[in-house]
Amino acid sequence: MNIIETTAKTILRKRKRIDSWFLSKCGMNLYRGCSHNCVYCDGRAEEYYVSGEFGKDVCVKTNAPQILKRELDPATRRKPQDHGFLMLGGGVGDSYQPVEEKYKLTRQALELADTYNLPVHILTKSTLVKRDIDIIDRINKQRRAIVSFSFSSVDEKISSIFEPGVPSPDERLETMEMFQRRGIPCGMFLMPVIPFITDIPARLEATVRKAKEAGAGFVLFSGMTLKEGKQMDYFMGTLLDYFPELEAEYSMVYRGEKRGNATDEYSSYVNSMLNILAKRYEMPRRIPPYVFKNILKENDHVAVMLEHMDYFLRSRGQTSPYRKAAYSVTQIEEPLSNIRKRLRELKGVGNATESIIKEIMDTGTSRYYDRLAKL
Ligand code: SF4
């Protein structure tokens, strides 16, 4: 691994709208590049402009704690900031990749979250997150912390091929169990499901079953993208080394879609399998509302639940008005309670959606949401 120390002008990456997967409006890349070197990693794609050789060169933003302090400190802001959950992880480098042992940038970011009383969501493939369980526990008790672990399967051999720099699935599951025992909400991001390799029904079932046994409170699924260029070239090189017989299947499923997505037909096949497994193991497919109740602002809480409902229906091939309604809710500045009598004026909000929104506002949950989540 080559470490390249650098300085950054800004650290926080802000979004206008809450992300209903991560419950966040704000994330960060403390490192660019990732020595975990997952073969499918889309951080390799040209659009992210990660310099150097992905998997070997890791850029460390050494001044990140100072910049982050300035960005998070409420005293330096004219208006109070609302980040939802502060997101640590994802993007173009795992926050707990090996270089974190030396630089402790993630730990320092957590210390700032603790100081400023901010909820955090950590997504990692590393067991190094155990090192920070003390501070994560403290954040969870005073605000809320979520720890999500990323997997492509729980198969040790497949992981050693496709995730060569990552602790084994068993070690990740043990780490998840440790967080669960401390009462810290945790779950699995099954991202990505690798076509024809980790989507074999028995393998998928083993993954969801082991997540359940380790105490995961949710499993979120996502397919694999293959963007033309470095990401696709690197992945296909490994695929041809280990699974040359799959080349033809891959060319059927990846047909040059702009974002590198698999065909709709394949995606709905995987979705339907995952829906069956989630039902069998009573596993939420989105982070459940009790985890973010009283943490997210009212409008964000409602918007996230509406987007989840939209997902539940779409993953079964049905259409829904909830995405539109969620979008409208995120566009207004005023709290929904202030316009309670005028909810119907929002685009996408009809009679039924209005009563769902009111129920969420009054109770933090919705009976219809619960029904859809179990389908
Ligand atoms: S851990 Fe995440 S960021 Fe790092 S190489 Fe793997 S997929 Fe990419």
Structure at a glance:
42% of the residues lie in helices and 14% in strands. The chain is of the alpha/beta class. The longest helix is centred in the C-terminal third of the chain and has 17 residues, at 264-280.
**Distance from first to last alpha carbon:** 46 Å
H/E series, N to C? EEEEEHEHHEHEHHEHEHHHHHHHH
CATH architecture assignment name of the largest domain: Alpha-Beta Barrel
Amount of helix: 40-55%
Secondary structural class: alpha/beta
Could you name the CATH class of the largest domain?
Answer: Alpha Beta
How big is the Rg? 21 Å
Note down, in words, how this protein is organized.
With 375 residues, this protein is an alpha/beta fold. It folds into two domains: 2-290, TIM Barrel; 297-374, DNA polymerase beta, N-terminal domain-like (DNA polymerase, domain 1, Orthogonal Bundle), CATH 1.10.150. The chain is built from 15 helices and ten strands. It has helices at 64-72, 99-103, 105-115, 133-142, 156-162, 169-181, 201-213, 230-242, 247-253, 264-280, 289-292, 298-314, 322-331, 351-363, 367-374, and strands at 2-6, 12-19, 24-28, 31-32, 57-61, 86-89, 120-124, 145-151, 186-193, 219-223. The strands form two sheets. A seven-stranded mixed beta sheet has the order 2-3-6-7-8-9-10. Strands 1-5-4 form a three-stranded mixed beta sheet, with no helix packed on it. Strand 9 (186-193), helix 7 (201-213) and strand 10 form a beta-alpha-beta unit. It is globular, with a radius of gyration of 21 Å. 46% of the residues are buried. Bound molecules: iron/sulfur cluster (SF4). Iron/sulfur cluster binds at residues 34, 36-38, 41, 43, 93-94, 125.
